[in-house]
């Protein structure tokens, strides 16, 4: 899976699971604010990542993730290591 395919897959499950409009998902947008994430939503997000990309997510990995671009880079890096 290449970079664009990973980003497309991420955006697809974000739209489906978090019921946001695709046009609000911009690389520079704040992930938490745009998706209106609470602690339970983070659990859902972790489950989606693990089931879609086949790697284990550590909660501390989210500390440095602020924007969608940060999130994409994290998933791409982890997915390439699998």
UniProtKB/TrEMBL annotation:
PROSITE patterns for this protein: CARRIER
Provenance organism: Fulvivirga marina
Molecular function, one GO term: acyl carrier activity
GO biological process terms held by the UniProt record: lipid A biosynthetic process
UniProt modified residues of type O-(pantetheine 4'-phosphoryl)serine: 39
Places the protein is found: Cytoplasm
Post-translational note: 4'-phosphopantetheine is transferred from CoA to a specific serine of apo-ACP by AcpS. This modification is essential for activity because fatty acids are bound in thioester linkage to the sulfhydryl of the prosthetic group.
Family according to the record: Belongs to the acyl carrier protein (ACP) family.
Name used for this protein in its record: Acyl carrier protein
Domain Carrier: 1-79
Keywords from the UniProt entry: Cytoplasm, Fatty acid biosynthesis, Fatty acid metabolism, Lipid biosynthesis, Lipid metabolism, Phosphopantetheine, Phosphoprotein
């Amino acid at each position: 899976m290449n970079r664009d395919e990973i980003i497309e897959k991420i955006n697809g499950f974000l739209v489906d699971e978090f019921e946001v409009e695709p046009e609000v998902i911009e690389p520079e947008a704040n992930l938490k604010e745009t998706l209106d994430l609470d602690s339970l939503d983070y659990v859902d997000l972790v489950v989606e990542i693990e089931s879609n990309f086949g790697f284990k997510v550590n909660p501390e990995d989210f500390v440095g993730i602020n924007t969608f671009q940060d999130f994409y880079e994290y998933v791409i890096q982890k997915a390439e290591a699998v």
